[in-house]
């Protein structure tokens, strides 16, 4: 039987220079927020590489966070 899971993933961050980066928030800083019916969690990660590599790492990490959220429902 399939179980319907309502999960929201929000992502923002800095993949390229020239924005709002600071020493505390350098390029490569990515923020995630996961919302499920029972909880909301925020995460911050620091990735290195080209803008494309940072985006791919963020996609990978976001996928892992979604899977973790599904398995904990």
TrEMBL record:
Gene3D superfamilies in the record: CinA-like
Domain annotation CinA C-terminal: ranges: 5-68
Pfam families: CinA
Lineage: Bacteria, Pseudomonadati, Bacteroidota, Flavobacteriia, Flavobacteriales
Protein name in UniProt: CinA C-terminal domain-containing protein
């Amino acid at each position: 039987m399939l179980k319907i899971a309502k999960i929201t993933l929000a992502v923002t961050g800095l993949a390229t220079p020239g924005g709002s980066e600071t020493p505390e928030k350098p390029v490569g800083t990515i923020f995630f927020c996961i919302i499920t019916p029972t909880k909301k969690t925020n995460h911050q990660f620091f990735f290195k590489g080209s803008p494309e590599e940072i985006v791919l790492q963020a996609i990978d990490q976001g996928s892992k966070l979604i899977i973790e959220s599904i398995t904990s429902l």
